[in-house]
Design a protein that fits this description.
Layout (H helix, E strand, L loop, with lengths): L2 H14 L14 E3 L6 E3 L3 E2 L8 H16 L4 E3 L7 H12 L6 E6 L7 H11 L5 E6 L5 H13 L3 E7 L6 H10 L4 E5 L11 H8 L2 E5 L6 H6 L16 H10 L6 E2 L6 H8 L9 H12 L2
Parallel strand pairs: 3-4, 4-5, 5-6, 6-7, 7-8, 8-9, 9-10
Antiparallel strand pairs: 1-2
Helix pairs in contact: 2-3, 2-10
């Protein structure tokens, strides 16, 4: 069975679990299509590695951020068992807000099959309080050879809709490319930002060639981009592609790469959610404007 048939079968199984992608809340935000399917995803997702268990004030802040993300048309949420309580918090918040059917939940598998990999995966379903995960990614390729077959079985059973791999480290790129060449994959997730462009050399072109969807992690380079620009005002020409903030300038660079489906900035603050979803509105930089962005940032 090829990848397209697998996706179709898994989609059929998911529909039999009463899931209807058309229920997803779609507003004006820009979307891109997952290669090989007709399913669309908003170009800005939510990174949740800081959605940790905390006091009531912290929980209220996360709830507000998630609710705002949903209300502004966001659907994709990226979490992982390794993100200290993130799956638990998200499971609780999603249930309280009653928004499971409108979300695309991505999590990760981070152990080999003979080292509790399947048990960890079962735990992700339980913590996220769902019987279907939209995407499960081998986290930094940990246990990838033994867990990808397990994930494919789960896909055939309709429990997992898409399968992928992640990295966020340049020193893993060679191995990452090998895995991309070795296995059929629906998604990859890789670090890519205006000051971290290495993925554009080989990984993004290979993903485009193979028809693999791409999530871009660390799109703000963990905040380093804001430090780089300091208190400078946006250049006038940023208005040509509808930027009203530095975050939008940085995110529009990432999502305007033709191979990138979705950037997943980490955001625990509501004002950041609103700002970042603004990057999914209006025009994106074209190839010339993207080069200008690179030259600007490299010149600082
Ligand atoms: N190997 C892997 O699989 C891997 C590795 C790393 C990351 N990831 C994924 O990628 C996601 C993103 O990574 P990250 O959160 O570490 O890095 P990031 O997205 O590059 O940066 C996040 C930081 O930027 C801040 N920020 C967000 N929007 C902002 C805005 N509009 N203005 C000013 N500051 C803003 C956030 O603050 P607030 O939190 O206060 O809003 C946070 O401190 C993770 O959550 C995770 O899902 C995956």
């Amino acid at each position: 069975m090829n990848r397209r048939q697998l996706i179709k079968q898994a989609a059929g199984a998911a529909l039999s679990l009463n899931w209807n992608p058309l229920q997803a809340k779609i507003q004006n935000v820009m979307h891109k299509t997952i290669p090989g399917t007709s399913e669309i995803l908003p170009v800005i997702g939510l990174g949740t590695n800081r959605y940790s268990v905390g006091n009531a004030q912290h929980q209220a802040r996360l709830r507000q951020a998630l609710q705002t993300f949903h209300e502004h048309g966001g659907t994709l949420i990226d979490t992982a068992p390794m993100y200290r309580g993130s799956e638990i918090i998200l499971g609780q918040l999603i249930k309280t807000l009653n928004i499971r059917e409108q979300l695309f939940i991505a999590t990760k598998a981070d152990r080999a099959a003979d080292n509790n990999g399947p048990e960890r995966l079962a735990n992700s379903f339980a913590q996220l309080q769902t019987d279907r995960l939209d995407l499960v990614q081998s986290h930094n390729l940990r246990g990838v050879d033994s867990m990808l077959p397990v994930l494919r079985e789960q896909q055939l059973a309709g429990r997992v809709r898409y399968v992928g791999i992640t990295t966020s480290r340049e020193n893993q790129f060679a191995e990452f490319l090998d895995v991309m060449n070795k296995y059929p994959l629906d998604f990859i997730q890789v670090n890519y930002s205006l000051i971290d462009r290495k993925a554009a050399e080989h990984i993004l072109p290979l993903a485009a060639d193979k028809g693999i969807a791409v999530l871009a992690n660390l799109p703000l380079s963990r905040g380093a981009l804001f430090k780089k620009v300091g208190d400078r005002p946006l250049p006038d020409w940023a208005a040509e592609f509808n930027c009203t903030s530095w975050a939008q300038f940085f995110l529009k660079y990432v999502i305007s790469h033709p191979a990138v489906n979705c950037a997943i900035p980490g955001m625990t603050r509501t004002r950041h959610v609103i700002d970042n979803l603004g990057a999914a509105l209006g025009r994106l930089p074209d190839a010339t404007q993207r080069r200008r962005q690179e030259q600007y940032i490299d010149g600082l």
